[in-house]
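Friendly challenge for the regulars: who can give me the structure tokens for this chain first? No prize, just bragging rights.
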Amino acid sequence: MTEKQFLAFDAFRNDFKNMISVWSGAVSNLAELQKSAADAAKTPSYNIETPVVYNTALDFITQNDEIKIIVIGDNPGKNEQLLKNRKYLVGQAGKIGEGFFRKNPELGIDFRRNAIILNKTPVHSAKTAQLKYIKKAGGFVAEKLLEETQLWMAEKTAEIAAVLGAEIWLVGYNDLKTKGLFYVYRDELKERCTRLGILNKLLVFQHFSMNRFSIDLKAFMGRSSFSSLHEAVHALGIQHRNEIFGV
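First reply, four minutes later:
Bragging rights claimed.
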């Protein structure tokens, strides 16, 4: 990164930390709501240690690092919220994503060195669908928290991507559809990317979980011929972007 880029990134992560502190106190019974949501979905019992999660992996990024992509997941799950972790995509889905790039070095991306990993919201739930329960059971304050976090993450993601010249890889798009959990994020990200002139840098994919990303990519490559994996990945990302964002 150039000095200017690193200063912008450093400002972003400091702002992110501050917002996590604000959001952590926004819903006084958030941990109880998260536990109730997990119980209602019959999720095996686990300790809720960090209801709103900052990605501490951001603190290890230095000016010497070259950030090529910003990977956007859904929200922090059980592994991500553990105090010993507090990092995004460190569960099974993250291991699959890391493995994909390691097996395909021609893409020139080290998942843990060339990527910033963010989420559509930093609010934890064992499974993303459980956010629906939290939103309904928590009433206005919980609904407001989920909306505010999505708006902020979308705005800042677009801004830092523009500064770094990085692509945005949005993985997991089912809940981006109208009336889905993350349609607020979708609309804000589209507006911000359009305003900054980086909509062409936005790529949309299936999630890494359950190996859906690789399965989708393999099927896509089987239907068309491409000169390289890089070309195929980008063509697939554009196709899904058109489907979800209409551009």
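The chain has a mean pLDDT of 96. The longest helix spans residues 139-164. Your move, everyone else.
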